[in-house]
Amino acid sequence: MLNTSLNNALLKTSDLLSEDSTNDNNLSLSDLAIHSEAATAFASLPSVIQNALIQKKRIVCIANNPSIDTSSLDALLQPTDMLVLFNDFIHADYFANHPLVSTLPKLLFFRQIGDSNLHFGLPPRSNNVMAINKMANHAPLGMLLSNQPYQFPHPSEDQSPHDDPVTASRILIIPSALNDLLHNDDHCGVLSEQHPVVTDYPYFSDIHSSAPSSGFLLYRLLLAARVHVQRLQESTMPLQIVMIGFNDEDKTAHFWQGHNWRFERQEMAKAPYGVQVIRQY
Predict the structure, then answer these.
(1) Contact 27, 207 (CB under 8 A)
(2) What are phi and psi of 245, to 5 degrees?
(3) pLDDT tens-digit series, residues 8-33
(4) DSSP states of 95-157 as a string?
(5) What does the pLDDT look like over 194-210, one tens digit per residue?
(6) Alpha-carbon dihedral angle through residues 67, 73, 74, 77, given to the nearest 10 degrees
(7) Separation CA 217–CA 182 (nearest Å)
(8) What's the chain's average pLDDT?
């Protein structure tokens, strides 16, 4: 398990950025433990994303934040990027059709809705299915589902239909090609909300399903995985990580009380070397 001391060590840059850090003979026991946890985090990613990370220089995590506009993304994104999108992500057509952006590898994270079999961003509560299918045709596409494998749910299995009702405008069918990816271990995997990278997370015992936010869970996972990527690349520098739209102020109504936002903001405020946080407010 990745305890607090190991997680704090992952945030340091001294030993892990030196050329000797790729030589196991020069590593302390704590360094070896860090690299073991980094390898575990890397292995949690679909293999298509593992391969993409080895070839890329930067990971760009884009929050589902309406203040992000496509002109900002045009100025930010580069051919050497890999993108991470979350749940009912914004600007679906942009990511699917833009001449450059459509060619970038993408990791999509779909959070489970409570204890149901539903995942945000997939049927029956989805408007982006066709865009996701198009993404898969243009570039490597990986998907992570929280807590359990994908099972196509029926509208009758929706435990809270009045919060977000299924309507005729929603796509209830997954194209066969996309369905194949959802059941292909090279492209799709399950990420537990209790993953070792967040073992120090302070949950709220009085709130059912209290857990890290989607962005923070992936942030921690990729922060650890990039240590392993650095070793595979035999590089003295880690992959850069850009977090866009992960704001540190509560200026929207969509901050669920089951996430420990204070803890997450404190952690993001001390982002380690090579991590850039771009806020929108």
Answers:
(1) no
(2) 85, 10
(3) 545 554 344 444 444 555 555 456 66
(4) HHH-TTGGGS-EEEEE-B-TTSS-BTTSTTS-S-HHHHHHHHHHS-EEEEEESS------GGG
(5) 999 999 999 888 887 78
(6) 170
(7) 21
(8) 83
Q: Which of 246, 238, 245, 232 is nearest to 273 (CA)?
A: 238
In whole angstroms, what is the distance from residue 278 CA to residue 118 CA? 31
Answer for the pair 104, 82: CB distance below 8 angstroms, yes or no. Answer: yes
Residues with Cβ within 8 Å of 238's Cβ and at least 6 positions away in sequence, in order, are 16, 17, 226, 227, 229, 230, 273, 274
Cβ atoms of 127 and 88 closer than 8 Å: yes
Give pLDDT tens digits for 199-250: 999 988 888 778 899 999 999 999 999 999 999 998 888 899 999 988 766 5
Mention every residue, 6+ apart, whose C-beta is less than 8 A from residue 219.
Answer: 61, 241, 243, 246, 268
- The dihedral sign for the CA sequence 207, 213, 216, 221: positive
* Owner of token pair 């570039």: 139
Structure tokens at 115: 């204890």
Q: Which helix (H) or strand (E) holds 9?
A: helix 4-10
Q: What string of DSSP letters covers 56-73?
A: -SEEEEE-S-TT--HHHH
In whole angstroms, what is the distance from residue 73 CA to residue 2 CA?
34
Distance CA 161, CA 34 (A): 44
Please, is 280 exposed, middle or buried when counting C-beta atoms within 10 Å of its C-beta (0-12, 13-18, 19+)?
middle
More confident of the two residues 172 and 274:
274
Whether the per-residue pLDDT at 79 is higher than 70: the answer is yes
What does the block give as tokens for 57? Answer: 């220089």
> Which residues are registered as beta bridge partners of 142?
107
In sequence order, the 6+-apart residues with CB closer than 8 A to the CB of 179 are 152
